[in-house]
Every structure is written in structure tokens, then in C-alpha cells.
Amino acid sequence: MTRSFEGRHRFPPGTNQVRLANDDDQEGARALARHALAASDLVTFYRSVGDVVWEDIGNGYFIHPVRDILEHLMEYGAVRVGEGQEPSGLVIGSDGSGRSYVMGPQGAIHRTRSASLEEPELDQVADDLRHFLELLEQSLARFVATGDPGPL
After folding, report:
1. Which residues fall within 8 angstroms of residue 63, CB to CB, at 6 or more apart?
2. What is the pLDDT of residues 28-71, one digit of tens each?
3. Which of 14, 25, 77, 129 could cross-link 55 (Cys pair, CB 3.0–4.6 Å)?
4. Strands 16-20 and 122-126, sheet pairing
5. What's 88-128 look like in SS3?
């Protein structure tokens, strides 16, 4: 994708990587595991992956480092995923337009309809983290083939 990017878009590509977890990330995964809101597959993910930064796929896709998730949780608390429910979602990523990806208590991934996390309106985009990662992979493949990442 990055080899043909500059010719197609007339500017050099930014950061587009899946960064492997380092010791700090793995320590963060252990800290995340102690939170009741953290799904086990998210903890497993952060034991291997530090973060995902795809600045140039559409508006961008970002799976935040585990430290950012923990800091957001400490500073702002959890996100209300369903009406009438206690706040229980974790902000795990974002797209380049300011919308956030939130993992609900059962592991489903939701996207905010706007950039605001205060009383957010959410749409479920994936059944679980694996499904979400598959959708990201499909967005990357579609972007390479057509220049359009699709609706994720």
C-alpha cells in the first residue's frame, strides 16, 4: 500500500503499522486484565500487539495502545454502551474523523456516531475483537484495491 501511495495521492504516506508489544505494553495488558470491564480477548491482543496505526487508510484507523485505554478509563471512566446500563465500555480505538471504537462488556465493538463520548450514540460494528480485526483487514485490502476503505 505504501509503495504506490505517493504516486496515487501526491504526498508521502504517514505511519501505517501494526506495532508489536514491548515490555511496557505487556505490563499494561496485565494491568488491563485486573479490570472487570476488560474482555479476555482484548487482554490477549495487547500481550502481542502494542497498537495499530493506519493513518492513510481512508481517514485513518487506530487501535490505541493499552496505556491510552487505561488512562482514558481512569480520567473519564467507562462509556455507556446500552441505554439504561451502567457505563461498561472501553474506548479501544478511533478513526481519523474523531469517532471512537468502544468494546462493550460482552466483547462487541461499537462505533460512536460522532466525536463526542458524552452520552454517545453507538452502532455495533463487530460481534467481537476477532470480527473487528477481520473488518480492519478487509478495509485495508479494499483500500489497496480501490482507494476506498469501505464503511468501517
Report:
1. 49, 51, 52, 92, 93, 101, 136
2. 999 999 999 999 999 999 999 999 999 999 899 999 999 999 99
3. 14
4. unpaired
5. CEEEEEEECCCCEEEECCCCCEEEECCCCCCCCCEEEEECC
If you count them, how many residues does the chain have?
152
Listed residue (99, 88, 94) closest to 122, CA to CA: 99
Residue 90 CA: distances (Å) to CA of 16, 100, 114, 139, 141? 24, 10, 16, 23, 27
Which sign does the torsion angle of CA 73, 99, 22, 129 carry?
positive
Bridge partners, residue 110, by sequence: 102, 124
Question: pTM (2 decimals)?
Answer: 0.91
DSSP state of 64: -
Of 29, 120, 24, give the one whose Cα is nearest residue 77: 120
Cell numbers at residue 76, please? 473519564
Phi-psi region of 142 (alpha: psi -120 to 50; beta: other; left: phi over 0): alpha
41 close to 107: Cβ distance less than 8 angstroms: yes
